Amino acid sequence: MKAEEYSERHEDIDGWKVHIVTYKVGDRYYCSIDNVDPGARFARAGGATREDVEREALEKARRYLGRRRNQRKRGDDVTEFFQRQRVFLGRECL
């Protein structure tokens, strides 16, 4: 099968630059959202209409990015978290 009605666009969601891709395969639409740098996909959806899948993927993206923003505010960078755990457990940090 071939993808139809393919579209790409860049948007800003709560201060994050994202890349949104939407396309149709057969009778289903798909949407995926990734952050522009480094390009990791973090939200996707599939469904019967373009509007529904984009809305669902954008909702997932906002929830995900909201959690990331909260982690930044607390200073809980993942790397720092694991480094603190290694120190706490008496292991050397890499």
Any overview of this molecule?
The protein has a 4-stranded antiparallel beta sheet with strand order 1-2-3-4. It is built from 2 helices and 4 strands. It has one domain. Helix content is 38%, strand content 38%. With 94 residues, it is an alpha+beta fold.
In short:
This protein has 94 residues and is α+β, with helices and mostly antiparallel strands. It contains two helices and four strands, in the order ββββαα.
Q: How many domains?
A: 1
The portion of residues assigned to helices is 25-40%
The structure class reads alpha+beta
Approximate strand percentage: 35-45%
Taken in chain order, the helices and strands follow as EEEEHH
Mean pLDDT: 81
Count of β-strands:
4
Identify the overall geometry: elongated
CA-atom Rg in angstroms: 18 Å
* Terminus-to-terminus distance: 46 Å
- Describe the strand arrangement of the main beta sheet, using strand numbers: 1-2-3-4
Largest sheet: 4 strands, antiparallel
The low-confidence parts are 87-94
Count helical runs. Answer: 2
Key terms:
disordered C terminus, four-stranded antiparallel sheet, alpha+beta, 94 residues, 38% strand
Q: Could you outline the blueprint of secondary structure elements for this entry?
A:
Layout: E1 3-13, E2 16-25, E3 28-35, E4 41-47, H1 50-74, H2 78-88
Antiparallel strand pairs: 1-2, 2-3, 3-4
